Amino acid sequence: MNATAAPARRQLQPPPVAPSPFPYNPGSLLSVQDLSLDTVSHLLTRASALEAMDPIERARILAKRRVALLFYESSTRTRTSFELAAKALGADTTLVSSLSSSIEKGETLKDTGLTLHSLGAEAIILRHKASGAPWVLEQFTRLPVLNAGDGMHEHPTQSLLDLRTILQHLLPGLTTVSADTLSGVTVSIVGDIFHSRVARSNMFLLPRLGAKVVLCGPRELLPEIATTAGPGITIERDFEAALRQSQVVMMLRIQAERLAGLQLDLETYKASYQLTGQRLATLAPSAVVMHPGPIIRGLELTAGVADGPQSAILEQVRNGVAIRMAVVERALTAHGARA
Ligand code: CP
Q1: Which numbered atom of ligand 1 lies nearest the CA of 73?
Q2: What is the pTM of this model?
Q3: Helix (H) or strand (E) holding 183
Q4: Which end of the chain is more exposed for a tag (fewer CB within 10 A), N or C?
């Protein structure tokens, strides 16, 4: 009998994963995940310094540099604050909006980006309805690209201005962050998590500073898989239980424009998840109330809460200018462009 040895099993190895080439440009801000905590600290520190600076001195920093704003989706806060931030540093800005440009005639993102590059744009601030669009634009233009919100994916400058707002309330004066800066702090993010790029960027950033992030909302707007976005993230379906443990409550708008046929009974939603004055007073009387805007009064929160003493909503808007000055400066200066 011819005994033959069993053939040795070939060990299957996963294919090697090539390191991401993004960002190509060190001045880009595509994802908050690309920022080290040192760079987050640098941006927070520069935001404070630029805000306090003499306006004439500040306007010399990027004097006559060219910044393009390319917006495929509507915006009030992000667009205006990026524009004011770039202008405050002395840059010339131009706005290309999908509703009043050759994008309406079918020009692609690539060709629009290359056109802006040829016109002398040195950085492009992009808002787009498609997740990943800023990566595409950066690949084709190799310019610094600042993600001003891409689809349901990320809104990195919103999470930085949210962080600045949280620090101003809980740790005033602090602009240097580390892995335990927010330890012991619970931030509840409430509402339409599924469609929210703001939620996603905050879920990526805040736990890296030690915060506990509690996601709260109904199953239609908050799938169980959300906790896999990273460590430090849990789900609490009971809004009142979430409020009881929160130092920060971040309310979100229901994004009707992205519901795509999903039926939601708004009265049922409000009964369970609306932030009312009574819920706030009894369950979280010292919590900071935040909202990225636009707010829908009477839906995710009452007008009394929006205008009340715990609301930091307009501080968030103001912080948008300071943070975006730091981000635009980083995009266009060798000094600022640290990974
Ligand atoms: N927070 C935010 O992105 O608001 P806008 O859509 O008005 O820019």
Answers
A1: 6
A2: 0.93
A3: none
A4: N
What are the φ/ψ torsions at residue 263 (nearest 5 degrees)?
Answer: -95, 130
Strand partners, 221: none
CATH code, domain carrying 103: 3.40.50.1370
**From first to last of its 339 residues, what are the pLDDT tens digits of the chain?**
455 556 666 677 877 888 889 999 999 999 999 999 999 999 999 999 999 999 999 999 999 999 999 999 999 999 999 999 999 999 999 999 998 899 999 999 999 999 999 999 999 999 999 999 999 999 999 999 999 999 999 999 999 999 999 999 999 999 999 999 999 999 999 999 999 999 999 999 999 999 999 999 999 999 999 998 889 899 999 999 999 999 999 999 998 777 666 778 899 999 999 999 999 999 999 999 999 999 999 999 999 999 999 999 999 999 999 999 999 999 999 644 444
- Are residue 145 and residue 199 in the same domain, yes or no? no
* In a shared domain, residues 171 and 291: yes
213 in a structural domain: yes
Q: How many domains does the chain have?
A: 2
Whole-number Å distance, alpha carbon 253 to ligand 1 midpoint, is: 11
- Residues 276, 140, single domain; the answer is no
Residue listed under structure tokens 């409430």: 190
* Ligand 1 atom 6 nearest Cα: 75
Q: Looking at the CA of residue 148, tell me the nearest atom of ligand 1.
A: 3
Pocket (CB within 6 angstroms of ligand 1) = 75-79, 149, 158, 292-294
Task: Give residue 146 CA to ligand 1 midpoint distance, Å.
Answer: 15
In-domain check, residue 11: no
| Residues making up the chain, counted from first to last | 339
Q: Are residues 245 and 308 in the same domain?
A: yes
Q: Which amino acid is at 9?
A: R
Structure letter (DSSP) for residue 307: T
Distance CA 57, CA 209 (A): 33
Q: Whose CA is nearest to atom 1 of ligand 1?
A: 292
Compute the distance between CA of residue 149 and CA of residue 116 in angstroms, rounded to an integer.
19
Same domain, 129 and 172: no
Cα 253 from Cα 236, distance rounded (Å): 18
In this structure, the answer to whether residues 141 and 195 fall within a common structural domain is: no
Domain that holds residue 281: 156-313
